[in-house]
Amino acid sequence: MKKTLLATLAAGLVAVLAACGGGESATEKTLRVGTLSDAPPNIYVENGNYTGFDNELLKAIATKQNLKLEFASTDFSSLLGQVANNQFDIGSSAIAQTDERKKNVDFSSPYNFEVMSIQTKDGSPITEEKGLSGKRVAVIQATVGDKWLTSTVPDAQAVRFPGYAPALAALKSGAVDAYILDQAIAETNVKESTDAKLKVVKSFTTDVPHGFAVKKGNTELLTKINEGLKQVIADGTWVKLHEKFLPTAPVPAQFKA
Fold first, then answer.
1. Which pLDDT score, from 0 to 100, does residue 21 have?
2. pLDDT tens digits, residue range 198-207?
3. What is the Cα–Cα distance from 41 to 52, expressed in whole angstroms?
4. What is the distance between the alpha carbons of residues 150 and 166, in angstroms, rounded to a whole number?
5. Is the domain of 93 the same as that of 148?
6. 118 in a domain, yes or no?
7. At 175, phi and psi to the nearest 5?
8. Predicted structure pTM score
9. Residue 132: CB partners within 8 Å, gap ≥ 6?
């Protein structure tokens, strides 16, 4: 009878814990962050450390909210699916918040806006979007750049890549005539390229916000990220990181301390 009573009590305790959500909260577990290793100044690896504007901003948010982070590299084309299936808790990669992506993941409040560029090798005759007509143009698969190219210059041949490094290599080798990508990354390519001279032909600001991605329905984590974002904007951390990593990009009014 004692065994039966103990078993009943134990079962009741398990039920109570389950009802109270006995799993680890966002502040108790180490959160896995999916990011990229090859897209400076937003997201990249330097001396074994995942850094860049987006990742350093997320680290600052985590400090404010007592969150523990662990970064890992992936391809951009796989990132949101990996967030949706719990492989990563957070996606950090200058991710534009499009309606299509919102069907699969939830996004934090905006922490920046998309500024795109057309990049070519120096000496290219391309000067603006009309010059892309009939050309082979590199884009990162499923990005705003991909959508912009197919909608703006439908007769351009979009050559889709899973990540930034192979797209850049294709531009340098002449396998593509131009490359559509984030302005900050394009400017970094110009500065750091030693094996080919590159230029930014044209840049254009969009109204598409960047956000950190989390699994749909993970309101606890989303709330913490949003609260932390408010804190790093209010104390000036956002502006300091922007000045460090994106000094030539405009600062939208809502991000000023």
1. 46
2. 999 998 878 8
3. 5
4. 20
5. no
6. yes
7. -70, -25
8. 0.78
9. 118, 126, 149, 153, 156, 177, 178
* Inside any domain, residue 108: yes
Give the CA angle between residues 29, 78, 184 to the nearest 5°: 90
Give the type of residue at 140: I
Which residues does 120 contact at the CB level (< 8 Å), separation at least 6?
126, 171, 177, 178, 179, 198, 199, 201
Residue 247 lies in a domain: yes
Same domain, 199 and 221: no
Same domain, 93 and 41: yes
93 with 217, same domain: the answer is yes
d(CA 146, CA 140): 6
The total of structural domains in the chain comes to 2
**223 and 106 inside one domain:** yes
Per residue in 44-85, pLDDT (tens digit) is 999 999 999 999 999 999 999 999 999 999 999 999 999 999
Domain end call among 188, 206, 224: 206
E strands along 74-218, which residues? 90-91, 105-107, 112-121, 136-140, 157-161, 178-182, 198-210, 213-215
Where the chain has pLDDT below 50, the residues are: 2, 5-6, 8-11, 13-21
